[in-house]
Amino acid sequence: MKSYLQILGTETGDTTPSILASFDSGRYLFNVGEGTQRYCIENKLRLSKLTNVFLTRVEWDCCGGVPGMLLSLADAGNRSITIHGGKNLTHFMASTRHFVFRMSSIVTANEFNDASPTYKDDNLDVQAVSILPSEIFHDAELAPAPYQSMAPPPPPQQFPRSEEASQFKRLVISQMFNSGSKLSIRVGLGGGAGWDGKREDRTRDFNNPMPPVPDTNRPPVAVTYICQGPAVRGKFSPDKAAALGVSAGTDFGLLYNGQEVMGGPNRDVLVYPPMVMTPERPGSIFIIVDCPSRKYVGPLCSNEKFVPHYAEHTNNPPSVMIHILGDDVLDDPLYRAWMKKFGDATQHVIVSKKHCAKPIIFQGSAISQHRLSILDPQLFRVPFYSNKITIPGYDDDPIKDYQADLPSKLIVGSSLVMFQMEPTPELDFTEQRAPFDHEDEFGKVLFNLRMLSNFSTDCRRVQSVFQSHDMIREAKLAAEKTPGWDVQVTTLGTGAALPSRYRNVSSTLIYSSTSGSILLDAGEGTYGQMYRRFHGCIDVGLEEVLMSIGLIFVSHMHADHHIGMFTVLLERQKKGSKPKPLCIIGPPQYWTWMREFAEIEDIGIESIEFAQAQAILVRNHLVRARMGIKELVAVQVEHCPYAYALSIEHNTGWKIVYSGDCRPNLDLIRAGSHANLLIHEATFEDDLQGEAIDKRHSTCSEAVIVAQRMSAEHVLLTHFSQRYPRIPKINSPGSNVGIAFDGMTVGLLQLPRLGSFLRPLKLLYP
């Protein structure tokens, strides 16, 4: 049997630590943070045999990719998945009920407790070790935080805080993934008039209503997993078998497969398999350690469940230990001493934000952005990256004197590094890819571009126009403080439904240095896209962008439009200075999801004002004074229940309209009249209009026609089906039509540039 561990993510800004354990008959994933699904797509990692997911913490950086992963696995044919984790696992799973459900599969939540901390199957024997920090907060501090909302509060309900509550949550999960059971509640589909004036009222069946789940609290539990593979059978000895009179051939095979045979000179003596096999060897052991901070070090290192695995107590020490660590943990001498107790035979792999490099993970997208930056370096920027690893005790590590305290076999983890457990324990770097380097003259980025002579010619032509006309016009308008002079639109994610190599899922940032920023949807990986676009940026940095966000709009409850929200909120909290108050507009179910998750992890909900999209008033919303917004109009559109578009008109005169996901809509055309910019979904090319109607999306030409009827100055097409990996085909585009790419930043005054890009783009992506 062959088995190995592989690191799928480290602390790179757009991935979090995740480890894959692979056996011949099954695969197991430890932690599924945001970006894990896209990581697997980028690296062609198949998860068809995935049956179990283990979470070290029920916190967003460990479980943020679970909702999207479950949906994709169900669609790929995985019929049964079990999620294992500590306290609040069932609460987390049940809280996703508004947007995660698949009738063709079964998902089980196995929440560990003191009575049942173990999992076992043919491949793995897993022991869960739950660790609490040395300082436990008072109950009042564990309680869910208060919140503000423009939405009416839910009616008071009494829920049990016991096993009954857990049973209720498990029932909710069983209804989300019920393997084909009939659903029977009618839920109205989002209406809104189409451009033919007709209003549809489809329904969807559900078996039970979606009541609030019982509340919970926030125990800061970190789970370490001690895992052992199956015992390795001994080797067959042909010499021993022959000496016992066993005939070579069939009888050798029977003995190897565990059956006794007749031997001896007269073939009258029973020969049993143990007589011709070397002794069975116990399976390899690996340990996944999660130690978020020094507060966990004492309880972790003193836990007796690790004692049997210390070198002085066993002949089978762990083959490998993967340490998911907070930045201050290795500074603790107690932790370093604990690592050495497992002996010199154990390989240690460190995964931490402090020590891991920040290389480009999604190379397909980075290569695309680099090529586009040659077309226009102002609108397209090479994503931030750093290929430097900080080795503990060396380099820039502030503590340089503890190298001798560390185990001799220690490496800093990196993407795709493997540890072969069977048949021979060893590190394996063969799957790793060469790091992205945009300055490498012999790398595929620049080398391939030199082959595109027509593209280079067109780039020079376009840049000549910029320098002779556009830049002069833009500078003049900016000096005159023309409406929108300081507004920049960054398309963080431009793909539909699922992430791909080239496009992440939906998110758009509207940044204004004077009024603050607006985030339009936040699909999974939105913060990672922000990190790559703005980290290290001289003009507008990542922290400035995060702190400037004053309004977030969630267009509807499909997971690809909002799963990335919590990382954005959590990262805002980590930035020392206090962020500005935040208003979130969205469907009422989104606020329920936020409040229920806030009982598990502090996402700063006490500083959030929530407003239901259908209740938005056009002139007197709270954000008017704060962000200088004159008019904010949420328009119900035809897509799914509670789906909305948004029109934003600023006091200074600029107007931007965002469609969300929808069919062409008359109400939106009226609300967005004479917009400076329409950001409209264009999921399908024109030849798939029938599919666009069935799935309640728009084609490219339909989006352009909406802009024409709206009298919008410019239209930016986005939300492309992943069947168009680079650019879709647009029939008869006008000079005011632009195609959105991930990481593209365009000022309102720069929008006229976009029309001139279409010809070189067709050469770059034929």
From TrEMBL:
It comes from the Eukaryota. Its EC number is 3.1.26.11. Keywords: Endonuclease, Hydrolase, Metal-binding, Nuclease, tRNA processing, Zinc. Coiled coil: none annotated. GO terms for cellular component: mitochondrion. GO terms for biological process: mitochondrial tRNA 3'-end processing. Residues 6-65 form the tRNase Z endonuclease domain. Signal peptide: none annotated. Residues 518-720 form the Metallo-beta-lactamase domain. CDD domains: RNaseZ_ELAC1_ELAC2-C-term-like_MBL-fold (cd07718). It is an enzyme of class 3 (hydrolase). It catalyses: Endonucleolytic cleavage of RNA, removing extra 3' nucleotides from tRNA precursor, generating 3' termini of tRNAs. A 3'-hydroxy group is left at the tRNA terminus and a 5'-phosphoryl group is left at the trailer molecule. Its cofactor is Zn(2+). GO terms for molecular function: 3'-tRNA processing endoribonuclease activity; metal ion binding. Pfam families: Lactamase_B_2, Lactamase_B_4. The keyword Hydrolase applies. Belongs to the RNase Z family. This is ribonuclease Z. It comes from Blyttiomyces helicus.
